[in-house]
Design a protein that fits this description.
By secondary structure, the protein is an alpha+beta fold. Helix content is 20%, strand content 36%.
Amino acid sequence: MKFQDVAVNREERYALGTEQASGRHYLSIPVSNGLVDYEEYYELSQDEFDRYRADLGSALPLVQQARNRQVDHRLIQQPGSKRGTAI
């Protein structure tokens, strides 16, 4: 999978983008498991992607839910057994 960020909120540490092969849109957050830092990718609908891209701050409630693992059903890739925590 090739994830291409199109908008980044550095202060709040998240990004929006498109997975190039499938065309699916995502919101990503950084996580760490103590051994490696990586990103988790949460699928967005076209409407969500358009709305968040137009107003990046409006994605903050979803970002918080992702950090709290409340929207794991949206994960594009399932985490391994040593899942990290949001950083």
